[in-house]
Structure formats: structure tokens, C-alpha cells
Amino acid sequence: MRKMNVAVVGATGAVGTQMIKLLEDSSLPLGTVKFLASKRSAGKQLSFKGETQTIEELVPDSFDGVDLALFSAGGGISAKFAPEAVKRGAVVVDNTSHFRMDPEVPLVVPEVNPEALRNHKGIIANPNCSTIQMMVALEPIRQAYGLKRVIVSTYQAVSGAGNQAMEELKQQTRDFLAEKPVDEWKADILPCGGDEKHYPLAFNALPQIDVFADEGYTNEEWKMINETKKIMEDDTIKVSATCVRIPVMSGHSESVYIETEKTATVADIQALIAKAPGAVLEDDPSQQIYPQALNSVGKKGTFVGRIRKDPDEEKGVHLWVVSDNLLKGAAWNSLQIAETMYDMGLFE
């Protein structure tokens, strides 16, 4: 069994940190593992499998001898360095949005479309965090009953905006508890670092993730719409999304309404979810059992509950879907792609 040399790009970020933890227990036969980041972070040290390793500066030659490169350092970094990694023989799993809608790049959730990995040309894209967990929940339903329409509203954790946004939320919370006037709170990041205005998230809900784009939808909402259709390889499915940032540290929640092609009962769908790969059924209203963001943190599964029929639409079903956005929504799905490729013999 040939050992694999791995590079983690963006090793100091929220997702990169999770990638490193997951690599420690990965089924991949690891050889050398190197951690890459900006010049500013180069020289810092971190622990991997009980040993201290030094973070290296990211340069094109960093990928010499690397078999697998896990990227999570921003779209601009991926655009510049992912082709360099491929040129030097590495397979890239990219956690940014840069390559997702490229027709030459597979967009993969391993429980949903692993066969798409066979068509890779060096780069595989990891979908949006909110798209991933929704796909895990919907794919078994689509396979059994067909799918005509999806309307999703997300309740997204601040960790999806990065470490600085998490720290800003903590400070705003302290300011609130100290009864400091809201107009004196520091708000420099959310709802979107690239937009002109910024608002506090503490004790608030911001119906904007990323900048606004066509038809009044944000880029985050368009990502969910377009990625869902690409992963399912079906442009006929009607998809609409509203993405909201809430003051939760980690764990994205989603209210998902679907319309199926064939009628299904609640019991039918519960049975499908209970046996679906990667999905965990938590659905017993009589005992107040349902998925919660707080309980999802640190877990790889996608939790599904509050399954109920729409009172006015025979083929309409509502679900509540929760997952750790830094794990299944990012780091774990990326590593899972790599492990699936290895099992399929695609590194040979």
C-alpha cells in the first residue's frame, strides 16, 4: 500500500484546523503531511500526531512530491495555486467556491454522487456547506420518490464566516451583557466582508450571506441553487434559497420544503433517512426529539427531523436539517472525497 504525501493549504484557518484533526484519524495511508499558509503564518508551529510541525509558506514548489492537496484558503489562493499543484502531480480537493461551477470540475458529496469523481482532471470541488447537508438529506428521497421542487431557508453559524467573525460575535455578546449601546459595538465583518455596510450579529439575524447578486439573491443563495442542480445533474428541479446568518458558533440549520414526484408518507421518508449513508434520523415530536445545532458540533453526520407533510400540498414535505458546517460542511466532506477516491483506486 503506497503511502500518500498530503498538503493542507490554509492550515491556520477554521476549516484547515479541522482538516488537520481529521487527518490524524484518516484511513488514508499517510506519508509526509505538510501544512501550508501565507507568509504571515509561515514559521508557526502546530501539533500533528503528537509531533510538532512547522507551517511552511505557500509557493508553487510546495507541491513537489505531493499526492493530495486539501485547499481551504480562499478562492484567490485556489485559483492561483491549485493548477500549480495539479501541474506537479497532485490531486486537489478545493473547499472554496472558485471551481464549483466549472463544467470540467466534479462537484461531489460522496454519499450522493461519488461516481463523478471518475471524471476528475486533477481538481475536485467541495460544495457549499449548506448545499452539502441538504444533499445528504434529499438524495435518498429523490432516488425513491423523485424531486420537483426545493425551497430552503438556512440558519447559518458564524464559523462559516471564519475565525475573525467568531471573535467579533464573542465581543458583541460581551458588549451586550455589559449593556453597552448597540451603536458602540464593533461590527467590521458581517454580514459580508466584501460589502459596504456591516451589522452586529449578536442577538440578531442577518438575511444576507455574501454580496447581493442577480434578482435580489445573494451569492450564497445562488450557490445553493446552482450547486444543487449540478450535483443532482438535473436542471429541471426548481430550487430557491434564503440564507440567514444567526448568532450560533457552529452548526448550520435548514428548513427545507420539497415537492416529490410520487406521494410519500412521513413514515416512508423517516425510513429512508434512517438508513441513508451519512444521515442520522432524529425525529420524535412526542419526546421533543429533533436536530439541534449545538448537538451537531464535532460530529460528521447530517441530522434530519421535523419531517411532516404539507397540509395543503399532497406531495409537499417539510424537513429540518442540521450539520456541523466545519466538518461535514467543509473539512470532513473534503477528506471524505479523498478517502473515497483512494477506495476507488483513483490515486493509482
TrEMBL record:
<keyword id="KW-0457">Lysine biosynthesis</keyword>
<feature type="binding site">
    <location>
        <begin position="12"/>
        <end position="15"/>
    </location>
    <ligand>
        <name>NADP(+)</name>
    </ligand>
</feature>
<comment type="pathway">
    <text>Amino-acid biosynthesis; L-lysine biosynthesis via DAP pathway; (S)-tetrahydrodipicolinate from L-aspartate: step 2/4.</text>
</comment>
<dbReference type="GO" id="GO:0004073">
    <property type="term" value="F:aspartate-semialdehyde dehydrogenase activity"/>
</dbReference>
<dbReference type="Pfam" id="PF01118">
    <property type="entry name" value="Semialdhyde_dh"/>
</dbReference>
<dbReference type="InterPro" id="IPR000534">
    <property type="entry name" value="Semialdehyde_DH_NAD-bd"/>
</dbReference>
<keyword id="KW-0560">Oxidoreductase</keyword>
<feature type="binding site">
    <location>
        <position position="156"/>
    </location>
    <ligand>
        <name>substrate</name>
    </ligand>
</feature>
<dbReference type="InterPro" id="IPR012280">
    <property type="entry name" value="Semialdhyde_DH_dimer_dom"/>
</dbReference>
<dbReference type="InterPro" id="IPR005986">
    <property type="entry name" value="Asp_semialdehyde_DH_beta"/>
</dbReference>
<comment type="pathway">
    <text>Amino-acid biosynthesis; L-methionine biosynthesis via de novo pathway; L-homoserine from L-aspartate: step 2/3.</text>
</comment>
<feature type="active site" description="Proton acceptor">
    <location>
        <position position="252"/>
    </location>
</feature>
<feature type="binding site">
    <location>
        <begin position="159"/>
        <end position="160"/>
    </location>
    <ligand>
        <name>NADP(+)</name>
    </ligand>
</feature>
<comment type="similarity">
    <text>Belongs to the aspartate-semialdehyde dehydrogenase family.</text>
</comment>
<feature type="active site" description="Acyl-thioester intermediate">
    <location>
        <position position="129"/>
    </location>
</feature>
<feature type="binding site">
    <location>
        <position position="245"/>
    </location>
    <ligand>
        <name>substrate</name>
    </ligand>
</feature>
<comment type="subunit">
    <text>Homodimer.</text>
</comment>
<feature type="domain" description="Semialdehyde dehydrogenase NAD-binding">
    <location>
        <begin position="5"/>
        <end position="120"/>
    </location>
</feature>
<keyword id="KW-0220">Diaminopimelate biosynthesis</keyword>
<dbReference type="Pfam" id="PF02774">
    <property type="entry name" value="Semialdhyde_dhC"/>
</dbReference>
<dbReference type="InterPro" id="IPR036291">
    <property type="entry name" value="NAD(P)-bd_dom_sf"/>
</dbReference>
<feature type="binding site">
    <location>
        <begin position="40"/>
        <end position="41"/>
    </location>
    <ligand>
        <name>NADP(+)</name>
    </ligand>
</feature>
<dbReference type="InterPro" id="IPR012080">
    <property type="entry name" value="Asp_semialdehyde_DH"/>
</dbReference>
<comment type="function">
    <text>Catalyzes the NADPH-dependent formation of L-aspartate-semialdehyde (L-ASA) by the reductive dephosphorylation of L-aspartyl-4-phosphate.</text>
</comment>
<feature type="binding site">
    <location>
        <position position="100"/>
    </location>
    <ligand>
        <name>phosphate</name>
    </ligand>
</feature>
<keyword id="KW-0486">Methionine biosynthesis</keyword>
<protein>
    <recommendedName>
        <fullName>Aspartate-semialdehyde dehydrogenase</fullName>
        <ecNumber>1.2.1.11</ecNumber>
    </recommendedName>
</protein>
<dbReference type="InterPro" id="IPR000319">
    <property type="entry name" value="Asp-semialdehyde_DH_CS"/>
</dbReference>
<feature type="binding site">
    <location>
        <position position="325"/>
    </location>
    <ligand>
        <name>NADP(+)</name>
    </ligand>
</feature>
<feature type="binding site">
    <location>
        <position position="181"/>
    </location>
    <ligand>
        <name>NADP(+)</name>
    </ligand>
</feature>
<keyword id="KW-0028">Amino-acid biosynthesis</keyword>
<keyword id="KW-0521">NADP</keyword>
<keyword id="KW-0791">Threonine biosynthesis</keyword>
